[in-house]
Structure prediction request, 590 residues.
Amino acid sequence: MSSDIHFRRIALIGIGLIGSSLARLIRRERLADTVTAYSRSAATRQRAKELDLVDHLDDDPGAAAAGADLVVLCTPVGSYSTIVEAMAPRLDAGAIVTDVGSVKRAVIDAVAPRLPENVHFVPAHPISGTEYSGPEAGFDTLFEGRWCVLTPPAGTDPDAVEKVAAFWRRAGSQVDLMSPDHHDMVLAITSHIPHLLAYNIVGTVADLEAQTQREAIKYAAGGFRDFTRIAASDPVMWRDVFLNNKEAVLEMLGRFTEDLASLQRAIRWGDGDALEAKFVRTRAIRRDVIEADQA
Amino acid sequence: MSSDIHFRRIALIGIGLIGSSLARLIRRERLADTVTAYSRSAATRQRAKELDLVDHLDDDPGAAAAGADLVVLCTPVGSYSTIVEAMAPRLDAGAIVTDVGSVKRAVIDAVAPRLPENVHFVPAHPISGTEYSGPEAGFDTLFEGRWCVLTPPAGTDPDAVEKVAAFWRRAGSQVDLMSPDHHDMVLAITSHIPHLLAYNIVGTVADLEAQTQREAIKYAAGGFRDFTRIAASDPVMWRDVFLNNKEAVLEMLGRFTEDLASLQRAIRWGDGDALEAKFVRTRAIRRDVIEADQA
Prediction:
């Protein structure tokens, strides 16, 4: 029963938006006797301490993870290999290591070979977040009604997978299983490319001459405002996403730019029928998204 | 005093999202003795009638506009020239014609030469809207707290401009004056390009094989959902925007795609510093947008 899930000691490796949301949720749901957290930054540890988010805070991932039966990697994915190497010798036999990273193939390649044989690795990606960062940005309902995708490699211990799934169900999420490569392709188009486009258009505005830029900010309500919100997301986290999902992002970006070139051509040549046909077609996808939300 | 603004008869040429929002607002604020509306579509007129939005509905723009002292064009901008030609002979001397179109240079070129000498034309663009369309989609607070940009050509009667400005202030909007060409450039980057990108990425998803498309819809929370909302906007309205703001859209799209190519290159070559620098820089624009909202 997922409602019975309980850990002796959960270690949160990273205590930003996701880590601190998990800390709040673990307390609320009493999912562990003890919660520890690692953060590299003294300022972040201090803020986490003031917020009383966990029982112990540490600047050494190995010390934070020692004795834990569940270790959750909540730092930008580019930091995983160094962190896992540091904590591997301190991990308990039978411990479960999981993560919350937005890419999965590169994470498996970075983490799995660095873990001891007797430790389970269950890669996970909660599809939730906000544009805010840091321990004060978290809240215990962040994962409610959202999907969490697990991408366990073949041969992963089914009990470990079920424990991680149960953990996410207690967070209020629906859990799905997927292959890591397929996950990376789907997320490239639904999340990584949208973020790239948002960062890019906001960057284009940042390069406009001062007067036009001020007006773009003033009249942001026309659509631009939504993009600035997405482009306010954590820069290091997103740098690491793009560096670690290169193949899928470049593949989807190639499709996107081909399609955009075709729209650009329709605009240049005044092909109203092509524009209208495209714009009508996209409405159906919106209906599907709304229906999927309600399901 | 703007609070004293009152018209004998307002004609709404088009009764979709914007026209029907204006109809509701005009009633609430008692801005006219009589309100008439034109719609080409019998179904739209029927729905507007059932909603009791205006005093008279007509399928002829000339009949709707006859005797009005304020005529507001609320149809897609591509229809303006035909509509204005049809109603020009029926317009009262001294009447003010205004519009709500998202582009202004092409609108002035289409409308101004077709109006009688004794009629005033004050081009306007309320920067507000939703992804919904039709007479049932409107609401009387749509324009509250938003900007309305007026782009009167040199020589426009100042009293007519002030009357239109006063009308929009009663709608709850802040009114700004701008040159039509500058308006079109600013809106290209803040509104037209964001809509084009949203339509385009949703189109890219629509071309994915069925299984991946279903998953993209399922996991839309990662960023894609915001794009589907924008891409649900009225297809004909947006077709006409792109056809009628070609120069500015192509100019801004050129800047955008150059910047995107540079980001794509940084991803391909694993240039994390370039990615992070870009993503950090865009956060400042978000702060400026939030501050502008609060101002």
